[in-house]
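RECORD TYPE: inverse folding
INPUT: structure tokens
STRUCTURE:
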């Protein structure tokens, strides 16, 4: 039967509507799939791709706070009680009476200047110099059997941060930036907060991108050097600003197409684009005046000790960054001390007692407050907190001093928060704290565990470079499952 003109027109209209509907539905589906892939929620089998928020398995943690104390903080004076040092105080270290450590010959065994106090429901003993941190022992898994490959500060810090004792390798935060991508496009994925006294040994190598694309290097921020407010001046209209940015974006794209293999250029362009987006976000993040007085008091902001006040402010900044979607924050406590011959604050070669009585109060209250604050806000459920240092100290005193020399053979690190079994100790040094003796743990085991909690198989998270599939854990490492909740 022949259709009437009206019927033909109606059918054509329906076809056009159907076509437009199909186009709209298809585009919506593509967009939704892209969003789901970014969140790692798309159904069906998929190949893992970096930078899309995907993980190898279900993750416990979505972000990391790494607190680093450069200078080799002494394990037997802070975290690991050694009654053997009390019993053998003043006697030679058995079997190593003539041992030469980093700075030469050692004297006799030296007990800790401070008593250790049983704390929390677990009864874990830590130094009486850390009364605020003692309140958190039930949240912490201590790794007392750590050991390192180097006894020198620079390589030691780089090794603890990158899994390699030489420069040129990506830091853990850079690996996370590469693997997960951004959770807030208006803020960096990875931020390093140096201590108020300066950068740690080997400086930016500790938060370097290494051979990963340059955009994965950390952005430096601190409460003492806030991001300037670069909001649009009132004399420039929104439309003028938008047209200007569009022109710059067009010119940048043309420039980049001519240099498609230049990753440094791409990273610089991405950094400038991020800087533009940070104009509104970053000044708000670093504006600590928005914090109530109760929070500032909790951390110790305003303390008469300006070094403690500065570190306390950086602790608050770290929390503000984490709660706004920054994936990885490196927070440093104690770098080079002015007026003390350039020595590192935790590097107590000569006068351990007076050094640590000066430094522990700077670290103790603000760090404990940061853990308290994260827990009260429910953020500790999906934030993995790490405390690290590059190596430990000798159980003996350096000859002619009342301090301790470097000891790469045994030291302590710890982790708390997402997926971590608190109130426990894994591994131990021997009766004097000289060497890792029970469940010795490498830096690679430590980070293999970190990656597992973040949802990654450390043997599969790799990047092809210079003929090798490179890993944070090199060709070593495992997962310390005893500390998993």
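DESIGNED SEQUENCE:
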């Amino acid at each position: 039967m022949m259709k009437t003109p009206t019927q033909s027109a109606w059918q054509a209209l329906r076809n056009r509507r159907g076509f437009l509907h199909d186009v709209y539905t298809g585009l919506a589906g593509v967009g939704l799939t892209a969003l789901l892939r970014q969140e790692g929620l798309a159904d069906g089998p998929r190949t893992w791709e970096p930078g899309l928020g995907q993980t190898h398995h279900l993750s416990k943690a979505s972000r990391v706070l790494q607190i680093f104390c450069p200078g080799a903080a002494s394990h037997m004076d802070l975290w690991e009680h050694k009654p053997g040092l009390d019993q053998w105080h003043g006697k030679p270290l058995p079997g190593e009476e003539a041992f030469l450590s980093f700075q030469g010959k050692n004297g006799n065994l030296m007990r800790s200047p401070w008593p250790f106090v049983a704390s929390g429901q677990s009864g874990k003993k830590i130094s009486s110099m850390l009364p605020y941190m003692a309140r958190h022992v039930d949240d912490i898994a201590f790794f007392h059997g750590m050991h390192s490959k180097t006894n020198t500060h620079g390589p030691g810090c780089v090794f603890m941060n990158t899994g390699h004792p030489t420069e040129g390798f990506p830091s853990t935060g850079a690996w996370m930036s590469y693997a997960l991508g951004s959770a807030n496009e208006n803020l960096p994925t990875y931020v390093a907060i140096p201590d108020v006294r300066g950068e740690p040994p080997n400086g930016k190598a500790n938060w370097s991108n290494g051979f990963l694309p340059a955009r994965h290097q950390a952005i430096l921020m601190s409460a003492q050097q806030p991001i300037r407010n670069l909001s649009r001046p009132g004399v420039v209209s929104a439309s003028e600003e938008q047209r200007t940015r569009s022109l710059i974006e067009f010119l940048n794209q043309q420039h980049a197409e001519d240099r498609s293999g230049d990753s440094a250029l791409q990273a610089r362009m991405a950094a400038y684009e991020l800087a533009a987006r940070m104009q509104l976000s970053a000044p708000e993040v670093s504006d600590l005046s928005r914090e109530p007085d109760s929070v500032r008091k909790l951390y110790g902001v305003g303390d008469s000790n300006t070094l403690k006040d500065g570190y306390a402010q950086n602790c608050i900044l770290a929390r503000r960054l984490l709660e706004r979607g920054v994936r990885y924050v490196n927070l440093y406590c104690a770098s080079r001390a002015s007026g003390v011959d350039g020595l590192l604050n935790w590097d107590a070669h000569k006068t351990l007692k007076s050094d640590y009585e000066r430094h522990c109060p700077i670290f103790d209250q603000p760090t404990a407050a940061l853990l308290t604050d994260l827990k009260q806000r429910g953020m500790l459920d999906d934030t993995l907190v790490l405390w690290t240092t590059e190596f430990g100290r000798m159980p003996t005193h350096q000859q002619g001093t009342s301090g301790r020399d470097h000891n790469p053979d045994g030291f302590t690190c710890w982790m708390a928060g997402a997926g971590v079994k608190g109130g426990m100790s894994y591994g131990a040094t021997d009766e004097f704290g000289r060497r890792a003796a029970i469940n010795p743990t490498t830096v690679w085991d430590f980070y293999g565990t970190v990656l597992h909690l973040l949802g990654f198989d450390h043997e599969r998270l790799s990047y092809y470079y210079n003929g090798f599939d490179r890993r944070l854990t090199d060709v070593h490492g495992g997962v310390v499952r005893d500390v998993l909740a």
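NOTES: Confidence is low (pLDDT under 50) at residues 37-45, 337-342.
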